[in-house]
Amino acid sequence: MITKSTKFHNKIAQKYEKEYQTPYWNLYNEITWEHIKKYLPNNKKYPILDAGGGTGYWSRKLAELGFNVVCSDVAEKMLEVGKKIVEKTPLSERINFVISDITDMKEFENNSFSLVLSEFDPVGYCGNPQKAIKELARVARKGSAIIISVDSLFSVIGRMISNKKFKLIPKLLETHISDFSGQYPQYNFSIEELRDLYSHNNISVDSIIGKTVFTRFIPKDKIDELLANKLFYKQILKLELDFNSDPSIIGFADHIEIAGIKK
Question: What residue ranges define each of the domains in the chain, with the CATH number in brackets?
């Protein structure tokens, strides 16, 4: 299904990764990677799925460790850029780029993947989060991890307050859908909602973290300047890793990442 999000990401595909090469996103990705590493399969017999993987940032990280990865996305231009990044490198032999809608991954059989990822919010952008999580669970092997990252409902409320958009809050609380960027709608989750969705799809929740829980309070126009300082970066990274699973603050993070095991 071609959504506004698909059209947007096809349009920005060529510059997508460059926009995320900043100190803040380096921090964010390092936090994410520390979480993912806990769930890497011991056996490399079966491939890993990077669902909604776009240009293949996480696919490359996994392929560098020797895993075979399927990077799927509905935005064809994003996949084309991803292919060009790895062409003429050994990684091209380990990453298969496949056009696929996360809500209907008919290209993949049941119980195919030893780890299933969906980073950078595709579950919230796809138009039907319930179907997306059902599909992610379907293609995962029994006992394997399913990890998704989504926008936090309460973080979006905070942004609306800071931008004095109080009139938008009642509708957000009713639907959980926002169009804060003005480019495409997204679904925003509470922690309990994610827990329920995992439970309904036979996934046992193993861990939940917030990304990021402290730096989100730093004004956007100052954050990269502060994180450019190596000592500050190291200190804030440690704080984030020490506290990003604290239940009292996860919901106020920009993003929520949940990892569960398929029963």
Answer: 4-152+184-262 (3.40.50.150)
